[in-house]
Amino acid sequence: xxxxxxxxxxxxxxxxxxxxxxxxxxxxxxxxxxxxxxxxxxxxxxxxxxxxxxxxxxxxxxxxxxxxxxxxxxxxxxxxxxxxxxxxxxxxxxxxxxxxxxxxxxxxxxxxxxxxxxxxxxxxxxxxxxxxxxxxxxxxxxxxxxxxxxxxxxxxxxxxxxxxxxxxxxxxxxxxxxxxxxxxxxxxxxxxxxxxxxxxxxxxxxxxxxxxxxxxxxxxxxxxxxxxxxxxxxxxxxxxxxxxxxxxxxxxxxxxxxxxxxxxxxxxxxxxxxxxxxxxxxxxxxxxxxxxxxxxxxxxxxxxxxxxxxxxxxxxxxxxxxxxxxxxxxxxxxxxxxxxxxxxxxxxxxxxxxxxxxxxxxxxxxxxxxxxxxxxxxxxxxxxxxxxxxxxxxxxxxxxxxxxxxxxxxxxxxxxxxxxxxxxxxxxxxxxxxxxxxxxxxxxxxxxxxxxxxxxxxxxxxxxxxxxxxxxxxxxxxxxxxxxxxxxxxxxxxxxxxxxxxxxxxxxxxxxxxxxxxxxxxxxxxxxxxxxxxxxxxxxxx
Amino acid sequence: xxxxxxxxxxxxxxxxxxxxxxxxxxxxxxxxxxxxxxxxxxxxxxxxxxxxxxxxxxxxxxxxxxxxxxxxxxxxxxxxxxxxxxxxxxxxxxxxxxxxxxxxxxxxxxxxxxxxxxxxxxxxxxxxxxxxxxxxxxxxxxxxxxxxxxxxxxxxxxxxxxxxxxxxxxxxxxxxxxxxxxxxxxxxxxxxx
Lengths: 542, 193
Description:
- The structure holds two protein chains of two kinds.
- Chain A is an alpha+beta fold.
- Among the domains of chain A are: 2-87, Ubiquitin-like (UB roll) (Roll); 273-279 and 288-530, Rossmann fold, CATH 3.40.50.
- In chain A, the strands form seven sheets. In chain A, strands 15-14-22-21-20-16-17 form a seven-stranded mixed sheet, sandwiched between helices.
- In chain A, strand 18 and strand 19 form a beta hairpin.
- In chain A, helix 2 (74-88) packs across helix 3 and helix 9 (323-336) packs parallel to helix 10 (370-381).
- The model of chain A is unreliable at 534-542 (pLDDT under 50).
- Chain B is an alpha+beta fold.
- Helices cover 41% and strands 9% of the residues of chain B.
- Chain B contains seven helices and four strands, in the order H-H-H-H-E-H-H-E-E-E-H.
- The two termini of chain B are 20 Å apart.
- The model of chain B is unreliable at 1-21 and 188-193 (pLDDT under 50).
- The interface between A and B is medium-sized, with 17 and 15 residues.
């Protein structure tokens, strides 16, 4: 098939739109979406095919090797201009107050194909704004009835909360009787809406989109490892959007991840190191005083070293740690403390996995990197790893002199461990995001960075290793765990070659963990790499 | 005509069926045995749920008078399809009532050929004579009125359909006698139910 003078190979089942996409030729469209069935209703993706008297919709025209297609000919431009007039008949001119402005297909196409003034003398028929879901408003009048939202809810989530009601000019998107768009994937319909009709209440009137800075990263709220864009203004995260990765999450993400960024902005985050003053009463919380990060690190290193000399040191590693952080922790224990007592923090499960119609899965495990931390710890320290219950049993019985507990759970009260065992430890160092019940018992408390504040890698449940990116600065004196661990490692006389940057740590890790062999941060790129075949039948992305 | 004239705003609809909403666990809405038999015949006749939808909705409307939210849930459950699909289909067709109707449901075609032949005036005359607006029912429960799209008898426009029967050439000046004849035919109120 020839498109705009360029050849493209025709596969079975391919459409003219697919051919255009293959060549990187953008054809304007509203209703077409690669993850959804073809509606063919917006009539905007029309192209000219030589020999056919009228323009054809590229999304629903099967490709043919004999076709010669033109995507920008006079016929095509005229057809698009005519369609744009229809789209704008009842569309309000409220771009100045519409959140979609700046990332709106209708706005972009109007700019390219619109007239600048309307030939339509009748008034616009007002349509009421509707509250269609927990986080979703429908500005009905802005809707172009592309039906991406209803097809998404029918085909991808399978929940069918929205539908098209009425007929002809009176058609509009409505809630199905007794249903609200509250499913865990519902937020995606605000992303796929090509205009400003479906808006997120969470982001409503927060910022014009062109002031946002977008950082590609990975979601941290379950081990699916959905690719995301962290969108920030100044040092605040304003919203999270899914980033397309067909090997992982497809085009979508869940609402737990979408709205899970709020802990990063939380004013109750730990912003400095502290130490415990005096003893704790039986059930009381000991008093604390703030200390410098340097002093805190010094105390932790000394206490771990002296406990190690007595052969009674251990650590609990968080599944919120990056692979690099797990590696540094493992090296601290292997190289400096000569111990292999590093346990994985037990999984912090939500009720069950939630699997949607087209396979998209929200995992019960609330932590992103259990697999990566386990891969790394096992490779460096040798398996099987002790369980956190075993380490805590040592603590309870008085055998443990010092414990380094990296919690870093974004849910301040979310980690379920036996805190009475923690009370029995002579020296408890905790790395955490919030002053939760574990942090309260620590002798030294170090403030950690959230995943949005650090560089590193996570390994998802299917073994896909992906990079995190630094999107915002940590509050106060909070530091990424890798920086804290590097300082401890340095003070204990570790191998400085692995310390400088997470990329260096990762390169070193890749020489020690067999399945990660040959990987580097650069090689991972924005899409990540699969390190091993999935352990069980892969829950495919959408 | 005097007997059905009401105030300018017309009476509120009379609840001729159960209140709308998802089926209540205590007294679930159900098809009668006769309707059940009819639905079984529909299942034999049509191989999939999509094909059964329209005939099933006709049975449901005959059974319950109108398609309430509760009826939508009942039919969706019966056909194992999302209630969203019911909402789309029921709201698309004016032949399915989403609110109670009178014993005679007067449907005035508003499509272009009828409009050119004065269906607007016909509509105004009927509404005025009955003293009700679209979607409302007269106080005696006899008439309800609504606007519909093309009834496919454009050569005899304006067309008015009463329940399942078409009435042709119903111009505004004929409305009074048209309504009188409907009332006379009904007489004891048996017809058109």
